[in-house]
Every structure is written in C-alpha cells, then in structure tokens.
Automatic annotation (TrEMBL):
GO CC aspect terms: membrane
Keywords (A to Z) from UniProt: Disulfide bond, EGF-like domain, Membrane, Repeat, Signal, Transmembrane, Transmembrane helix
Family from the record: Belongs to the neurexin family.
Domain Laminin G: 243-408, 459-650
Name of this protein: CNTP5 protein
Subcellular location: Membrane
Record membrane topology: Single-pass type I membrane protein
Lineage of origin: Eukaryota, Metazoa, Chordata, Craniata, Vertebrata
Residue ranges occupied by any Fibrinogen C-terminal domain in the UniProt entry: 34-86
Source organism per UniProt: Certhia brachydactyla
Disulfide bonds: 381-408
Membrane-spanning ranges: 689-714
Domain of life the protein comes from: Eukaryota
Domain EGF-like: 1-35, 409-447
Amino acid sequence: RCLPNYCEHGGKCSQSWTTFYCDCNNTGYTGATCHNSVYEQSCEAYRHQGKTSGFFYIDSDGSGPLGPLRVFCNITEDKIWTTVQHNSTGLTRVQGAGLEKPYTMSFNYNSSAEQLEAVINSAEYCEQEAAYHCKKSRLLNTPNGTPFAWWVGRANEKHLYWGGSLPGIQQCACGLEESCLDMRYFCNCDADREEWTNDIGLLAFKDHLPVTQIVITDTNRSNSEAAWKIGPLRCYGDRQFWNAASFNTEVSYLHFPTLHAEVSADISFFFKTTAMSGVFLENLGIKDFIRIEISSPKEITFSIDVGNGPTEATVQSPTPLNDNQWHYIRAERNLKETSLQVDNLPKKVLEAPAEGHFRLQLNSQLFVGGTASRQKGFLGCIRSLHLNGQKLDLEERAKMTPGVKPGCPGHCSSYGNLCHNGGKCVEKYNGYFCDCTNSAYEGPFCKEEVSALFEAGTSVTYTFQEPYPVTKNASTSSSAIYVDAVVSKENIAFSFLTAHTPSLLLYINTYFHEYLAVILSKNGSLQVRYKLSKDGLLIFTIDSGNFANRELHHVKINREGRELIIQVDQVLKLKHNFSEIDFKAIKSLTLGKITDSLSLDPEVSKANAYGFTGCLSSVQYNHIAPLKAALRHPSLAPVTVKGSLAESNCASMMEADVNTATTIYSSSDPFGKTDEREPLTNAVRSDSAVIGGVIAVVIFIIFCIIAIMSRFLYQHKQAHRNSQRKEKEYPENLESSFKADIDLQNTVSECKREYFI
C-alpha cells in the first residue's frame, strides 16, 4: 500500500493489512496524506491572525510542491513588508578587480529560485537597494561605453542598469533625474573622480528580481577603490489575499481550466452573500464531479463522486452564513478521507472506502459562481480562491465576463472588529486599514501602546480651542458664548505606573473654574475629584489598595449624561449619578505637574507640588490622545511639553525588579529619585530600613578599625622617638635598639601595661 507512496511532501508511509498511514513530523505539512501546509501563504495572512512583527515561515503555494520559506514580516504599518535576507547585505569594499580578473559575489537567500519567484509574483511591489560607492572606479561607463559593473537577476539574466533607473536604460538614478555630478555622464561614479562619491537607488522591476550576483571590474588602477551593497529582497502586498469577484446574477459565472486532482485536491476561498443558496464552484467529468455550495442559510455542502457514487460532507452552522460577512471554506479530498471546514466550526470528515475507484477524472471547465447548467448560480462575492495551492485570478477573469465585477466592497463589515481602542476601519479597494488618528494607540490594529516617562516637573498640557472670543470678565450672562462647547460626556482611559505619592495624574479645567482631577493620595489610594458649579466638589476615592506599588494600573472614567462609572484594572469600582450633567467650555487637559497659575484646592495643590513621577500610557480623552499628540505631533497639535518627557514602555518597566529600579537607576530615572520631605512607600521603606541597618553596622566596624589603627600608629611613633633618643645615648648598641622596635610592633592589648626597654 506504500508503493507508490501517496504521502506528500516527504511524509513517511507505513501500512497495515487494510490501509496506509503517513507520518508528517518535521515536514511542515499536516493531514492524512501530509497535504496541507501548517504555515500561512503570506505575511498579510499572519497579520489577520493578529500577529506582530517577527520571523515567520510562509508557504506561497500552500499545498503545492514548493516548501516553506523563512522571512521577516514587518507588521508595524499599513503596508505589510516581507523581507528575505541573503548572505551579504553589508557594505563590502573591493580593490584590484579588472576585466581579466573581475570581482564577483553570488547571493544565497537560503531558498530555491522557485520559492523566491513565488513570493515576488504574489506581491504587489518588490524592491532591492543597490548602492555603489566609488573612488576612481567607473560603474556603467556611460554614456556609450561598455559597463564596468553589472548585476544578474532572475533566470541568470545580465542587467546593465542600476538602482533608481528603468530596465533597458543604461543609467543610474541621477541620470534620470538629471542630477549627476558631471552632466556628461549618467552615473556619478562614471565621472571617474579621485574623491569618494556614490550611486544609490532601488531596483523595483519585479520580473528581474531577485539579484543573484554582482560583478565589478574597475578597481585595479592606482587609487581606485569601490564599495557596494545589495539590500535584502523586500515586498509588500498579497495580490491574492484580496483578489475577489462579485457575482450579480444567478446565471453569471467565471470559467477556468479543468481541475486536475486525481488523487488529492484541496479548495479554499472566502465568500459573503445574502442569498439563501447557490453553487460556489463545480467541475464535471463523464461520471465524476466535484461541487461546493451553500445549500441553505446555515449549511455548506461539499459533494464529490470518483465513480463509487456521490459522497457529501456537510457542515451546519448555528448562525446564518448569508449575513453579508466574510466566511472561510476549505474542502479537501484524498485517498484517505473527504473533509470540509467552515470558519472555525468543527470539521466534517468522511473516511474514503477501502476498495473501489479512487481517481477523480474531470474533463469539463471549472465553473466558479455557477454551474454548467446555469442553474442555482451564486449571488455574492468570492475571494482568495486557491485550488491545490494554485491561485486563481478572479479579478482578471471578471474584467471580461458580463454579470461579474472585479473586486468586492465592504471589508470593514467583516474586519472592522480588528481595529481596537477606538481605531476606525477604512475601506480600500483591496482590503482595509485601521485609522488610529483618534486613538491613544498605534500600529496596524491600533493595539500598540504609546507610553512616556515623567519626572517630577514634567508637564504635558493639551489646550482646547476656544469656542468664541472669551470676554475678560465672564459672567453668568455670558454663558451663551459656550453653548456649543458643552461636553455631556467624558470617556477617559489611561494606564500608569509609579512608586511616588502624592501624585497628580490628570487635570481638566474649564473657563468656568470647573475641573476634573485624578490624583494619588498620600496613602496610595486613587481619587477622582469633580468640581461642578451646581454639585460643588465631589470626591470619589478608590482605596482598594496602594496604587503606587510599581505595578501597571488601568483606569477608565466614563460619564454619559448624569451617570458616572469608574473602573480600575477592569473592575467596576464606583457608580454615581450627578444632578448636573455638563462640563462647560473645557480649557485644557494637563498630565503631570500644572505649571499655570491656577487656584487649586488644597489636596490637588499638595499633589501638584510633586507632579507625577513614573510612566503614563495610552491616555485618551473622548476623541483626543494628548500623550500621543505630544510624542508624535508636538509641532502640529495644540500641546505644550515642559520638563523631561521620554518615550518608554510601561509594561516592560513593570517587569523590572523593584530593588534594582530604586537603587541602580540613574538620576534621569524618576523611580530612582526621592524627596527628602516625603517618606517612601511601604515596600521601599522596608528595604531602606534593612539597607540602613547594614550601613550602620559597616560604619561602626570602620570606626573601630580606625581607632585601633590610630592607637597602633601613635604607639609606633612613640617607640620610634625613644629609639632615636637611645641611639644618641648608646650609638654603639644599634642591635638592641633594632630589637626594641621589633618588640614594639608586637604590642600587647590595651588592657596590659606597656614597658619600653
């Protein structure tokens, strides 16, 4: 049963009397016959799993013959970059190379040429940096000479253009831009100057990439030298992940060549629809066939016949699938089983019969979005269709088919929930992106915190725009001025980490002397202080623990109309109903120390004396992110920064050891500073007590040693004087004087009498 071996991708076959088994360990594939890749096909797919930047394996052809390739996925911005390194990405110097003895360097990407081509062909854009630094070393020998350097690309093809230029044009970037040092040449290095210069640009014609070799032949003259650099292969965009077609009528369909999958086949795609039923795809043979359809709003069916009669694998969903949201389908058939997966629902698996026909023989065209009979057609969108790892270009085929349109709008309806923390999902033709402008976070999904380190005097003040010119003497009659500036809600969220109390975290004030303050009291409790004109001063204290314990705490303050809700560390701490519901004409929001001359109540003033020393993270007030504005757009946003403000990471600081943080941090670290007027928190106080005791013992021992040494030196000095006196009286008896010095050095303890002989 293992001859031939139906285990794919190097799987090891074993057998029993009735069947065979495949061991897929260390192959990078899984399934009954090691058919399915365990890796995604692109960095874009990893992004939609919520992955962050890092090294990943991608399998560009899925279940196809190409193996996985290790790449770096940069998932920090809207464009997801895929980077493939080679063996020489640094700057390399060259001397002594000529036409008879050229310098050559071949690049190894730890992959096959087919793997690299698959990555490049799947991407929207690819590039490699090409840099040539030269001193009396010509590059392309422009305008009409034979090039002295060239590079080799895909299919071992030699190329005579340099980075920044276009294929077929023997020029560098400065030649196209008409900015070369010597306008007689099309490259800076072709001027053949004695001083160093360079030609740098990007090679971005996909059909010629990747660069596989570079050749240099003009560094063998006197004082001739060059240095080159070819960057890694970088690509962004997955042309297939968003490749979609919209089917507008039940009789419309796309047709493709026959599916050849005699012993194994896998089909995967995304769909969205509002129709009750319809056929996604169908391929017929004389008797055999394969079909995938939505047979009812909650049911997907995969039907196949290899000559033994139809087999149907059906997955039923607890919720309707015709909700105009994207859903994922993967169907597979091999010699062992037939399976169907829909979204994350349990997979339906049917074992294949041990005897009978097993080869799927099809001969008609593959119909997508309909059937050969033009009945039960599909209404909706199909995206990212793969058959046995091969990508079908739905958009290109839809451009020439009536009743079918390329692309499919409405991605945010399915993927908008991936934009977190107030990020807004924005539609693109081939996908979407998360707009984090009004979020306190950043990154592709608005999930990366923006944090900063505050010192005692640090102040970040966000000034709100005045609604109208403010009169100098505002009275109650002038309140109409601020009618459009009434704030009926506050959605405040931030995280903090500190070891110092009291502290002023956040302060919001209005033109009517109302305010909202968030402070840490002396005992480490959290206070939210509201001053409204009707209610007066309201103080809400959360004393469930010491919040100045060098741990990261998350605070949410939400007021909608009269109702106030305060959450700390995702736990509801307080609810309150106001009699007054509006903040009128907000003037500014301050993080840390208030530097303006404001009339503060005593508790706020006491906290403000110390400001805030610690780490603040992801501060949000309604649609404004003041801390992010201060760090990312200090010149554009109406924000003022005073004192030291250094970008940091609160989460990583929390992991630091408390003792190390308080004793080793330099003076620039706020957690290393203490105020002589204010005792430390309990944890630090206990450590200080232990350290103080040790220091006291050490000082006592040092004083004892100094006293003993002083006594010894005094005795030694006296002995020395006596010996000098005796030496004068009895100069002939030098030996006895020397012995006296020796005896003095072995002086007995202080309690014994001392005699000098």
